[in-house]
Amino acid sequence: MRTLIKDLKEQEITTISGWATNIRDTKYMIFVILKDRSGKIQVSIDKKEQPDLAAKLDGILSSSILSFTGKMVYSEYVKDGGKEFLPTQIEVLSKSEALPLDETADLDTRLNYRWIDLRSEKNNLMLKVQAAFVEGMRSFLIKEDFTEIHTPKLIATASESGSEVFEVKYFDRKAYLAQSPQFYKQMAIASGLERVFEIAPAFRAENSNTNRHATEFTSFDLEFAYIDSYEDVMNMEEDLLIAGLLNVKNLYGDKIKELFNSDVIIPKKPFPRIKLQDLYQELNKRYGYEIPEHDIGDMNAEAEKLTSRYAMEEYNSEFIFVTGYSKTKRAFYHMRKNDIPEGFDLIWRGTEITTGAQREHRYEILKKQAEEKGLGKDVEFYLEFFKYGCPPHGGFAIGIDRLTMLLLGITSIKEEMFIFRGPSRLTP
Length: 428
Description:
The chain is an alpha+beta fold. The chain has helices at 51-56, 107-112, 114-117, 121-143, 182-190, 230-260, 276-287, 301-315, 363-372, 380-383, 400-408, 413-416, and strands at residues 13-25, 29-36, 39-46, 65-74, 83-94, 147-148, 154-155, 167-170, 173-177, 195-203, 216-225, 273-275, 319-323, 336-337, 340-341, 343-348, 351-358, 393-399. A hairpin with a 2-residue loop joins strand 2 (29-36) and strand 3 (39-46).
C-alpha cells in the first residue's frame, strides 16, 4: 500500500513511490530526492551497509519512477523539515533516459516536451491553482442555484464572427467548431432553466501570436434570467470572482507568494465602473493617450494597460468595468439602449478578462439587429429560441487560462496552459 510523503509517520514501515527528481551518488551514500503529488523527501542508502539496494540504482537517472519500502525518521542533517526515508527495499518502476531539456530551455523546447516541463513545482502549482479557481467559482454558482450544462462543440453556423471559425467536414456538409456556447446558453434560458453555466473548450480561428491568445482555450460561461439590467450581470461577476479568488488564497496563497512572488488580492465590492467615452478622456488627460481611429468605440491592448493603471490610481482597484461600447464593436445579441449596447468589459491587471451584457430577448428586435450585421439567414435557428417567449437575461464568459496567467503574473498564455494551441502549434 502506497503512502503519500505528506502522510509519513516516524518509524512506521511503509512504501512511498514517485519521481526521482535528483540522484546524488557519493563515495559512501546515495541520496535520492523523491517527489509525489504531496511533497518531497530525501531517501538515503548506505552503500556499505546496503550494497544490494545501491546496486539497484546503478545507472538509474533522475526522472525515473522509484518505489521504496522502509521508514521515515527525523534527522538534524536533512533539510526540508528534517525528514529522511531509510529504505529496506527498492523497486524501479520506470527508467528514464537523459532528459532532453533543463531549466534553461527556451519556451518552444519546453512546449515540445510539455509533459516534462509540467513536472516542475511551479507548473504543478499553476495547474492546481487553476483548478482551485474553477472549483471556487463553480461551487458559488451551484449555491446560487445555477445548473451546469454541456453544449455541443460541433455547430452548423458561427456563434460569433464567420471569419474566425474552424471549418470541419461533417459527413456530407460543413460544420464549425464552436467559438462559444452563447447560442445554447440562451436556448437553455428559453427552455426554463433560468440559471446556467458551462466550463468547456472554445475555438477561435484567429491568426494571433500574442501573449494572451490561443486558438483553443477553456471558457467559463454563465447566463441567468430575470435581470433588471446589465448591472445585475456585473454584480454577479463580482461575487463569482471573489469566490474563486478566496478559494485560491485559502488553498495556495502562501505557496503562490513563495513560487510566483504574486499576491492573491481579494477585491472589494463594488468594482469601479466607467463609460468608454469618459475613459478615453481620462487616459488622454492623465497619460496623453489618444485612442487610434480604427479602435474608437472599443479598446486595445495599450488602452487596457492604461485603464488598469488608472483604476489603481483613482480607485485602488485591480478591477474596473468599462461600459458604453459601440454597437459596431459588439455582438448583435446585446441589448441596446439609445443605440448603445447594454454591456461591459472587465479589465484586470492590464488585460480584458470578460465581455458581458444583457441580451436582447425580444424576437423582432433581435431579428432586426441580426439583419443589421448581415446574419439573418445564418442565425435563423438561434432566432427560433425567442419566438415562443424568453425572459430578460444576461451573462458573460471568462477565459480561465488568461485568468490564471494574470493571477500568477505569468507573461505568456503559452506557459500557463496545460497544452497550448496556436496558429503554429498543433502538437503535442
